[in-house]
Protein backbone atom coordinates (compact mmCIF):
# COMPACT_ATOMS: atom_id res chain seq x y z
CA UNK A 1 0.00 0.00 0.00
CA UNK A 2 1.33 3.42 -0.92
CA UNK A 3 2.04 5.75 1.99
CA UNK A 4 -0.09 8.88 2.23
CA UNK A 5 3.04 11.04 2.39
CA UNK A 6 5.92 10.89 -0.05
CA UNK A 7 9.22 9.51 1.21
CA UNK A 8 11.18 11.04 -1.65
CA UNK A 9 9.90 14.61 -1.66
CA UNK A 10 10.38 16.46 1.63
CA UNK A 11 7.38 18.23 3.18
CA UNK A 12 9.12 21.59 2.90
CA UNK A 13 9.82 21.14 -0.81
CA UNK A 14 6.20 20.19 -1.48
CA UNK A 15 5.12 23.37 0.30
CA UNK A 16 7.45 25.52 -1.81
CA UNK A 17 9.76 26.30 1.12
CA UNK A 18 13.41 26.87 0.09
CA UNK A 19 16.00 24.46 1.55
CA UNK A 20 17.58 27.22 3.63
CA UNK A 21 14.33 27.47 5.61
CA UNK A 22 13.67 23.77 6.13
CA UNK A 23 14.67 23.71 9.81
CA UNK A 24 13.80 26.05 12.62
CA UNK A 25 17.33 25.91 14.03
CA UNK A 26 20.14 26.90 11.68
CA UNK A 27 23.04 27.96 13.91
CA UNK A 28 24.29 24.45 14.71
CA UNK A 29 25.73 21.70 12.55
CA UNK A 30 24.47 18.39 13.85
CA UNK A 31 26.16 18.37 17.22
CA UNK A 32 25.65 14.92 18.70
CA UNK A 33 24.86 14.91 22.41
CA UNK A 34 24.49 12.23 25.07
CA UNK A 35 21.47 12.41 27.37
CA UNK A 36 22.47 11.93 31.01
CA UNK A 37 19.41 9.73 31.52
CA UNK A 38 21.30 7.07 29.58
CA UNK A 39 23.25 6.53 32.80
CA UNK A 40 20.85 8.01 35.34
CA UNK A 41 21.90 5.39 37.89
CA UNK A 42 25.50 6.68 37.77
CA UNK A 43 26.83 9.76 39.52
CA UNK A 44 26.99 12.89 37.38
CA UNK A 45 30.79 13.09 37.64
CA UNK A 46 31.16 9.59 36.21
CA UNK A 47 28.65 10.35 33.46
CA UNK A 48 30.56 13.48 32.37
CA UNK A 49 33.79 11.48 32.27
CA UNK A 50 32.30 8.75 30.08
CA UNK A 51 30.55 11.19 27.73
CA UNK A 52 33.80 13.09 27.26
CA UNK A 53 35.88 9.94 26.68
CA UNK A 54 33.33 8.65 24.14
CA UNK A 55 33.80 11.80 22.06
CA UNK A 56 30.34 13.39 22.18
CA UNK A 57 29.97 17.04 21.18
CA UNK A 58 28.04 17.85 24.33
CA UNK A 59 25.57 16.74 26.96
CA UNK A 60 21.83 16.90 27.45
CA UNK A 61 21.27 17.14 31.19
CA UNK A 62 18.07 15.50 32.41
CA UNK A 63 16.70 17.06 35.58
CA UNK A 64 15.84 14.51 38.27
CA UNK A 65 15.73 14.31 42.05
CA UNK A 66 19.51 14.19 42.44
CA UNK A 67 21.08 17.38 43.76
CA UNK A 68 24.04 17.06 41.39
CA UNK A 69 21.78 17.57 38.36
CA UNK A 70 20.16 20.69 39.79
CA UNK A 71 23.17 22.67 41.04
CA UNK A 72 24.45 24.94 38.27
CA UNK A 73 27.83 25.66 39.86
CA UNK A 74 28.60 21.96 40.23
CA UNK A 75 27.57 21.31 36.62
CA UNK A 76 29.88 24.12 35.45
CA UNK A 77 32.70 22.59 37.47
CA UNK A 78 32.22 19.27 35.68
CA UNK A 79 32.08 21.00 32.30
CA UNK A 80 35.47 22.55 32.95
CA UNK A 81 36.97 19.38 34.42
CA UNK A 82 35.98 17.14 31.50
CA UNK A 83 35.97 19.75 28.72
CA UNK A 84 32.42 19.03 27.60
CA UNK A 85 29.45 21.40 27.74
CA UNK A 86 25.80 20.98 28.64
CA UNK A 87 24.15 22.23 25.47
CA UNK A 88 20.62 21.03 26.22
CA UNK A 89 18.50 20.52 29.34
CA UNK A 90 15.67 18.01 29.64
CA UNK A 91 12.98 19.50 31.87
CA UNK A 92 11.94 17.61 35.00
CA UNK A 93 9.27 14.95 34.37
CA UNK A 94 6.13 14.34 36.41
CA UNK A 95 7.79 11.87 38.80
CA UNK A 96 10.48 14.41 39.75
CA UNK A 97 9.19 15.68 43.08
CA UNK A 98 12.14 17.79 44.25
CA UNK A 99 10.32 20.99 43.24
CA UNK A 100 6.84 19.82 44.18
CA UNK A 101 3.95 18.53 42.10
CA UNK A 102 3.05 21.75 40.25
CA UNK A 103 4.22 21.38 36.62
CA UNK A 104 4.41 25.17 36.25
CA UNK A 105 7.05 25.34 39.01
CA UNK A 106 8.86 22.25 37.74
CA UNK A 107 9.27 23.54 34.19
CA UNK A 108 10.09 27.10 35.25
CA UNK A 109 12.87 25.92 37.53
CA UNK A 110 14.22 23.70 34.77
CA UNK A 111 14.31 26.69 32.44
CA UNK A 112 16.05 28.82 35.07
CA UNK A 113 18.70 26.12 35.49
CA UNK A 114 19.24 25.89 31.72
CA UNK A 115 19.85 29.64 31.57
CA UNK A 116 22.30 29.56 34.49
CA UNK A 117 24.28 26.78 32.85
CA UNK A 118 24.27 28.54 29.50
CA UNK A 119 22.48 25.76 27.61
CA UNK A 120 21.17 26.49 24.13
CA UNK A 121 18.06 24.37 24.33
CA UNK A 122 15.47 22.92 26.70
CA UNK A 123 13.05 20.04 26.17
CA UNK A 124 9.66 20.20 27.86
CA UNK A 125 8.72 16.60 28.50
CA UNK A 126 4.99 15.79 28.48
CA UNK A 127 3.10 13.42 30.74
CA UNK A 128 1.69 10.20 29.42
CA UNK A 129 -1.03 10.73 26.81
CA UNK A 130 -3.53 9.41 29.35
CA UNK A 131 -3.05 12.51 31.51
CA UNK A 132 -5.56 14.70 29.70
CA UNK A 133 -5.39 17.46 32.34
CA UNK A 134 -1.69 18.05 31.64
CA UNK A 135 -2.26 18.38 27.90
CA UNK A 136 -5.09 20.83 28.41
CA UNK A 137 -2.84 22.83 30.73
CA UNK A 138 0.34 22.81 28.60
CA UNK A 139 -1.54 23.82 25.46
CA UNK A 140 -2.81 26.89 27.31
CA UNK A 141 0.55 27.79 28.90
CA UNK A 142 3.31 26.83 26.47
CA UNK A 143 3.80 30.41 25.26
CA UNK A 144 4.67 31.43 28.81
CA UNK A 145 7.57 28.96 28.89
CA UNK A 146 8.85 30.02 25.48
CA UNK A 147 8.90 33.66 26.60
CA UNK A 148 10.52 32.84 29.94
CA UNK A 149 13.25 30.72 28.33
CA UNK A 150 14.55 33.25 25.78
CA UNK A 151 17.23 33.14 24.41
CA UNK A 152 17.12 29.39 25.15
CA UNK A 153 15.11 27.48 22.53
CA UNK A 154 12.17 25.42 23.82
CA UNK A 155 10.82 22.32 22.10
CA UNK A 156 7.99 20.02 23.18
CA UNK A 157 8.54 16.28 23.09
CA UNK A 158 6.21 13.64 21.71
CA UNK A 159 5.53 10.98 24.31
CA UNK A 160 4.58 7.32 24.42
CA UNK A 161 1.13 5.78 24.40
CA UNK A 162 -0.24 2.54 25.84
CA UNK A 163 -3.12 2.31 23.42
CA UNK A 164 -4.20 3.03 19.86
CA UNK A 165 -3.34 6.52 18.69
CA UNK A 166 -6.38 8.78 18.82
CA UNK A 167 -7.18 11.57 16.38
CA UNK A 168 -6.10 14.20 18.92
CA UNK A 169 -2.74 12.47 19.36
CA UNK A 170 -2.22 12.39 15.60
CA UNK A 171 -2.73 16.15 15.67
CA UNK A 172 -0.21 16.61 18.50
CA UNK A 173 2.33 18.09 16.09
CA UNK A 174 -0.08 20.85 15.08
CA UNK A 175 -0.14 22.47 18.52
CA UNK A 176 3.35 23.67 19.44
CA UNK A 177 5.78 25.78 17.38
CA UNK A 178 8.76 23.41 17.73
CA UNK A 179 9.25 19.76 18.59
CA UNK A 180 11.64 17.23 20.02
CA UNK A 181 11.03 14.05 18.05
CA UNK A 182 11.81 10.94 20.12
CA UNK A 183 12.18 7.89 17.89
CA UNK A 184 11.49 5.27 20.58
CA UNK A 185 8.36 7.15 21.64
CA UNK A 186 7.14 6.99 18.05
CA UNK A 187 7.76 3.22 18.13
CA UNK A 188 5.28 2.77 21.00
CA UNK A 189 2.52 4.29 18.88
CA UNK A 190 3.11 1.74 16.09
CA UNK A 191 3.26 4.58 13.58
CA UNK A 192 5.85 4.70 10.79
CA UNK A 193 8.83 6.80 11.90
CA UNK A 194 9.47 8.28 8.47
CA UNK A 195 5.84 9.31 8.13
CA UNK A 196 5.99 11.03 11.51
CA UNK A 197 9.18 12.87 10.54
CA UNK A 198 7.40 14.08 7.43
CA UNK A 199 4.39 15.14 9.52
CA UNK A 200 6.50 17.24 11.90
CA UNK A 201 7.84 19.13 8.91
CA UNK A 202 9.39 22.53 9.50
CA UNK A 203 8.67 22.32 13.25
CA UNK A 204 11.50 19.86 13.83
CA UNK A 205 13.83 21.44 16.37
CA UNK A 206 15.49 18.63 18.32
CA UNK A 207 15.90 14.84 18.18
CA UNK A 208 16.10 12.07 20.78
CA UNK A 209 17.57 9.11 18.93
CA UNK A 210 17.35 5.49 20.03
CA UNK A 211 16.23 2.18 18.58
CA UNK A 212 13.42 -0.23 19.43
CA UNK A 213 12.61 -3.88 18.81
CA UNK A 214 8.98 -3.30 19.92
CA UNK A 215 9.40 -5.78 22.80
CA UNK A 216 8.46 -5.31 26.44
CA UNK A 217 11.14 -4.07 28.79
CA UNK A 218 12.46 -7.06 30.74
CA UNK A 219 12.74 -5.16 34.00
CA UNK A 220 9.37 -3.46 33.64
CA UNK A 221 7.20 -5.97 31.73
CA UNK A 222 3.92 -4.28 32.57
CA UNK A 223 4.95 -1.02 30.93
CA UNK A 224 4.82 -0.06 27.30
CA UNK A 225 7.54 -1.11 24.89
CA UNK A 226 9.56 2.07 25.34
CA UNK A 227 12.92 0.47 24.60
CA UNK A 228 15.53 3.19 23.99
CA UNK A 229 18.16 0.81 22.58
CA UNK A 230 21.50 1.65 20.97
CA UNK A 231 20.81 3.12 17.50
CA UNK A 232 21.25 0.45 14.85
CA UNK A 233 20.51 -2.53 17.12
CA UNK A 234 16.72 -2.64 16.76
CA UNK A 235 14.06 -2.54 14.07
CA UNK A 236 13.45 1.18 13.52
CA UNK A 237 14.53 2.56 10.10
CA UNK A 238 17.14 4.81 11.68
CA UNK A 239 19.52 4.75 8.72
CA UNK A 240 16.76 6.05 6.49
CA UNK A 241 15.74 8.50 9.22
CA UNK A 242 19.25 9.98 9.50
CA UNK A 243 19.65 10.10 5.74
CA UNK A 244 16.42 12.08 5.48
CA UNK A 245 17.70 14.48 8.13
CA UNK A 246 20.68 15.09 5.89
CA UNK A 247 18.39 15.51 2.88
CA UNK A 248 16.26 18.16 4.59
CA UNK A 249 19.39 19.89 5.92
CA UNK A 250 18.46 19.45 9.56
CA UNK A 251 21.09 21.28 11.61
CA UNK A 252 19.86 20.95 15.20
CA UNK A 253 21.05 18.72 18.02
CA UNK A 254 20.82 14.94 17.76
CA UNK A 255 20.73 13.40 21.24
CA UNK A 256 21.38 9.71 21.81
CA UNK A 257 19.05 8.79 24.67
CA UNK A 258 19.29 5.15 25.72
CA UNK A 259 18.30 3.07 28.71
CA UNK A 260 21.16 2.14 31.07
CA UNK A 261 20.55 -1.58 30.53
CA UNK A 262 20.91 -1.06 26.78
CA UNK A 263 24.49 0.14 27.15
CA UNK A 264 25.64 -2.21 29.87
CA UNK A 265 25.39 0.04 32.90
CA UNK A 266 26.72 -1.71 35.98
CA UNK A 267 29.26 -3.66 33.96
CA UNK A 268 32.78 -2.46 33.21
CA UNK A 269 33.37 1.14 32.17
CA UNK A 270 35.16 -0.26 29.13
CA UNK A 271 31.96 -1.97 27.94
CA UNK A 272 29.81 1.10 28.61
CA UNK A 273 32.30 3.27 26.77
CA UNK A 274 32.34 0.88 23.83
CA UNK A 275 28.54 1.06 23.56
CA UNK A 276 28.49 4.85 23.86
CA UNK A 277 30.99 5.05 21.00
CA UNK A 278 28.92 2.55 19.01
CA UNK A 279 25.87 4.82 19.28
CA UNK A 280 27.86 7.91 18.36
CA UNK A 281 29.55 6.26 15.38
CA UNK A 282 26.21 5.02 14.04
CA UNK A 283 24.90 8.57 13.92
CA UNK A 284 28.04 9.98 12.36
CA UNK A 285 28.24 7.26 9.72
CA UNK A 286 24.67 7.68 8.57
CA UNK A 287 24.74 11.47 8.50
CA UNK A 288 27.78 11.55 6.19
Could you characterize what this model shows?
This protein has 288 residues and is α/β, with parallel strands linked by helices. The protein has one domain: Divalent-metal-dependent TIM barrel enzymes (TIM Barrel, Alpha-Beta Barrel), CATH 3.20.20.150. It contains 10 helices and 8 strands. The chain has helices spanning 11-14, 44-54, 72-82, 103-117, 132-149, 167-170, 183-189, 193-200, 238-247, 269-287; strands at 32-35, 58-62, 86-90, 121-124, 153-157, 179-182, 204-209, 254-256. It has an 8-stranded parallel β-barrel with strand order 1-2-3-4-5-6-7-8, surrounded by 5 helices. Strand 7, helix 9 (238-247) and strand 8 (254-256) form a beta-alpha-beta unit. Helix 2 packs parallel to helix 3 (72-82) and helix 2 (44-54) packs across helix 10. The longest helix is centred in the C-terminal third of the chain and has 19 residues, at 269-287. The radius of gyration is 18 Å and the shape is globular. The chain starts with 10 loop residues before the first helix and ends with a helix. The relative contact order is 0.16. Residues 1-28 have low confidence and may be disordered.
Amino acid sequence: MERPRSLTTPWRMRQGVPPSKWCIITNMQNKILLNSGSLYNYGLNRFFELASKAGYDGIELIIDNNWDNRQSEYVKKLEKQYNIKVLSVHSAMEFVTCWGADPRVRHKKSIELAKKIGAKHIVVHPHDYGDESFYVWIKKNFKEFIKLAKPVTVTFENHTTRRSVSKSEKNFFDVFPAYTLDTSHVATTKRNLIDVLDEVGGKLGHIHLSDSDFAKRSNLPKLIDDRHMIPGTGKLPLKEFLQKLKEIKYSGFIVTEMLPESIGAGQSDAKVLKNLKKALNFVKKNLN
